[in-house]
Specification:
The chain has 283 residues and is mainly α. The protein folds into 3 domains: 2-52, no CATH class; 70-146, no CATH class; 165-282, no CATH class. Helices cover 64% and strands 1% of the residues. It has 12 helices and 2 strands. It has helices spanning 2-10, 13-20, 42-55, 70-80, 103-115, 120-164, 168-182, 189-194, 198-222, 239-250, 253-256, 263-282, and strands at 233-234, 237-238. Strands 1-2 form a two-stranded antiparallel ribbon. A hairpin with a 2-residue loop joins strand 1 and strand 2 (237-238). It starts with a helix and ends with a helix.
Length: 283
């Protein structure tokens, strides 16, 4: 007992402290991490943790603040790899329609992406994705247009079959001739819009049919011998001959084709004959 007490009393203060201090070691799960190499004690661990906490929320060095000037941002973009001019070597995505000109897209995209500070690689990625979206949107729009046109064609076919039977093509052709002949060039685009209104187009064809029927009736009535009382003179010839000539000219190709060299001459003759007939029946 005396010997043990003597041994304890003979220990130095440093020896006692070393024996009582807790040991420190990095857990195996973190031992191979780079940051753990510098951690040799609990003191090092707390310092590293404190330093990490102080860095949280700080803006990385070199990135301009939100109120930085344009010059600062331009310097930053340049350092990140943005070209000096809005010129990028874009690649085209697969699936572009043959002959599709991307020049307008490329020029606009270059301006926008350069302003946003993108590097060539970033700009090319954005450009490709944008074109893919545009092509997809265009495809959907084309499908919708085709479906709508198919429905309009169906309505038109049903209406014309109901009102004209097998003669639908005939009156459609006559209607087109009338538009070409009588509608000013500045208004002819209106005719194209009629294809989107099957009911209006059919109504105009019905009008053309009625007008053509009147022309046919006049030709038949005035073209018959003895159909009109003769004997009086109109425009240097009998009223019968005058009406025959008028009916013939009104239905002639020269009167319907405004591109014909004789169109104006024919129209003038028709006017003269019509005035003669009118004067005859008023007298």
């Amino acid at each position: 007992m005396t010997e043990e007490m003597t041994n304890q009393e003979s220990q130095t203060p440093n020896q006692a402290t070393e024996q009582s201090a807790p040991s420190f070691s990095i857990p195996e799960d973190y031992a191979d991490r780079g940051w753990a190499e510098k951690i040799k004690s609990s003191d090092d661990l707390f310092k590293a943790y404190d330093n990490a906490q102080s860095m949280i929320g700080k803006r990385p060095a070199g990135i301009p603040s939100k109120d930085a000037s344009d010059d600062e941002w331009n310097q930053f973009y340049k350092a990140m790899g943005r070209p000096d001019e809005p010129k990028y070597d874009f690649t085209e995505p697969e699936g572009l329609p043959e002959g599709f000109d991307t020049t307008p897209f490329r020029e606009q995209a270059a301006e926008i992406l350069h302003k946003a500070g993108l590097t060539p690689k970033q700009a090319n990625a954005v450009y490709n994705e944008y074109l893919k979206l545009e092509m997809n949107s265009a495809g959907q729009s084309q499908e919708a247009t085709e479906a709508q046109q198919a429905e309009l064609d169906k309505q038109y076919e049903e209406l014309t079959k109901e009102h004209f039977g097998d003669d639908a093509q005939k009156y459609e052709g006559l209607l087109k001739e009338d538009f070409e002949k009588h509608v000013p060039q500045s208004l002819k685009e209106t005719f194209a819009k009629l294809t989107d209104m099957p009911d209006v187009l059919t109504a105009l064809m019905a009008y053309t049919k009625g007008k053509q029927g009147e022309i046919d009736r006049v030709k038949k009535e005035y073209g018959q011998e003895g159909g009109i009382t003769t004997g009086n003179q109109a425009n240097g010839q009998s009223i019968d001959d005058t009406r025959r000539e008028l009916a013939s000219l009104r239905s002639s190709k020269e009167a319907r084709d405004f591109t014909s060299p004789k169109y104006n001459e024919t129209q003038e003759r028709i006017k003269q004959l019509a005035e003669s007939v009118d004067r005859y029946y008023k007298s």
